[in-house]
């Protein structure tokens, strides 16, 4: 059951919000370095303040609202997951380790058999 694709029309106001948000992010970085001779706390407050305003403006745009909706849908889906118990997870981990060990042993035996057949039987090289 999939949701039909939603087509959104990006208005001029949304584009302006995104542009202002982007400019505020750039402005935050510029302000941080422009205030280089000021105290560190002032630089950090200016950076974080402008970033918070930029994020706030972004979340009022259509793209921001879609991002919030996506996050909410993701949380709903994670709540639907049936997580294995500790015992089940331990058993599955043991099965994986055993399979890897058996496969490594099989590949080692195959490699040594082919090495013996090629070098000793066919080519006659003795080591």
Automatic annotation (TrEMBL):
GO biological process annotations for this chain's record? Answer: intracellular protein transmembrane transport; protein secretion; protein targeting; protein transport by the Sec complex
Q: Listed GO molecular functions? A: protein transmembrane transporter activity
Q: Which residues cross the membrane?
A: 18-35, 41-60, 92-110
Name one matching Pfam family: SecE
InterPro entries membership: SecE_bac, SecE_sf, Translocase_SecE/Sec61-g
Q: What is this protein called?
A: Protein translocase subunit SecE
- Provide the alphabetized UniProt keywords: Cell membrane, Membrane, Protein transport, Translocation, Transmembrane, Transmembrane helix, Transport
Family that this chain belongs to: Belongs to the SecE/SEC61-gamma family.
Q: Record's GO cellular component, any one?
A: plasma membrane
Q: Which residues form a coiled coil?
A: none
Spell out the HAMAP family in the cross-references. Answer: SecE
Q: How does it assemble?
A: Component of the Sec protein translocase complex. Heterotrimer consisting of SecY, SecE and SecG subunits. The heterotrimers can form oligomers, although 1 heterotrimer is thought to be able to translocate proteins. Interacts with the ribosome. Interacts with SecDF, and other proteins may be involved. Interacts with SecA.
Q: What does this protein do?
A: Essential subunit of the Sec protein translocation channel SecYEG. Clamps together the 2 halves of SecY. May contact the channel plug during translocation.
Q: Where in the cell does this protein reside?
A: Membrane
């Amino acid at each position: 059951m999939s949701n039909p694709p939603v087509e959104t029309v990006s208005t001029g106001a949304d584009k302006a919000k995104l542009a202002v948000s982007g400019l505020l992010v750039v402005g935050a970085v510029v302000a941080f370095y422009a205030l280089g001779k000021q105290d560190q706390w002032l630089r950090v407050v200016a950076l974080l303040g402008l970033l918070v305003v930029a994020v706030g403006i972004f979340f009022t745009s259509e793209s921001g609202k879609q991002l919030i909706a996506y996050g909410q849908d993701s949380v709903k889906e994670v709540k639907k997951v049936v997580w294995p118990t500790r015992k089940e997870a331990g058993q599955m981990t043991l099965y994986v380790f055993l399979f890897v060990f058996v496969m490594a042993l099989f590949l080692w035996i195959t490699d040594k058999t082919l090495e013996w057949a090629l070098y000793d039987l066919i080519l006659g090289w003795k080591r």
